[in-house]
Design brief:
alpha/beta; DNA polymerase, domain 1; 2 domains; 11 helices; 57% helix
Length: 256
């Protein structure tokens, strides 16, 4: 009987260990693995305020409402198209969202005005704190990449306008896998392309839902919460957040 009891306890201990030890090892690995690369959402780098300033200029009293409808529907369309499996790229989504917004607000938008507004997405400038911070990150030997819903054409246009050529190792568009974040296939792009583990890539998101999606995928995540919004209630929160790049730089110092 004693031998049976000892054998049972030994088997039980081994079974429990088989569940606990891998998790503990994985957690330890995540804590000790150094961040080697940083993947940015495009809007963490590029400032879209000129897009909406142009809407105000073109449509005066209706500009703010048009911009709000456009911005909201732009991202809702990405999620709806993922769910419906009816993919078009982010440029088309953005154009469709603008058409919807104009109809919703009852603004008569000409083809020229439509093209003017769309064209701003090819010429976005960086937020004021970006250039110096990127220089510091490069000096600290981080590999830098975009991981964005923007098309490659949009990314390339903004990179060129912002004079950031050569700063980013990769400009990854979710268009490559014909989906949008927060689909896990979009987040997987950075790992597959940069040949790194999840724990080695810090994702920096602009939107709360994007930060939550990256964290749920498994990336260490910093939410660059420039609009100072509350976190989304999606069951996953960024490891840290801040409203500016200096806070991101401080966070990275704590991880070295």
């Amino acid at each position: 009987m004693d031998n049976d009891r000892r054998n049972f306890l030994a088997l039980a201990s081994a079974t429990v260990a088989s569940y606990i030890l891998p998790a503990a090892t994985s957690e330890l690995y995540a804590k000790t693995t150094r961040i080697r690369a940083i993947a940015f959402d495009a809007l963490a780098i590029f400032d879209t305020r000129p897009v909406f300033a142009l809407a105000d200029q073109l449509f005066h009293d209706h500009g703010a409402e048009l911009s709000n409808q456009w911005r909201t529907r732009q991202f809702e369309y990405t999620w709806l198209r993922i769910a419906a499996q009816r993919y078009v790229d982010f440029w088309q989504v953005t154009s469709d969202a603008l058409t919807y917004a104009a109809n919703k607000v009852k603004v008569n938008i000409s083809t020229q005005q439509h093209n003017e507004l769309m064209g701003t997405y090819l010429r976005l400038q960086p937020w004021p704190d970006v250039t110096a911070a990127l220089s510091q990150l490069k000096s600290d030997q981080y590999r830098l990449a975009f991981l964005s819903n923007f098309t490659r054409q949009m990314l390339d246009g903004c990179i060129q306008t912002s004079r950031l050529d050569g700063v980013f190792e990769r400009a990854l568009s979710s268009d490559k896998v014909r989906t949008f974040k927060p689909d896990p296939r979009a987040y997987q792009l950075a790992m597959d392309t940069m040949k790194l583990q999840k724990e080695e890539i810090l994702f920096v998101g602009f939107a709360g839902w994007d930060a939550a999606g990256a964290k749920a995928f498994g990336y260490p995540t910093f939410w660059l919460n420039r609009l100072n919004l509350p976190p989304e209630e999606l069951g996953a929160n960024a490891d840290a957040s801040g409203i500016s790049f200096p806070e991101l730089l401080h966070y990275l110092k704590t991880k070295r």
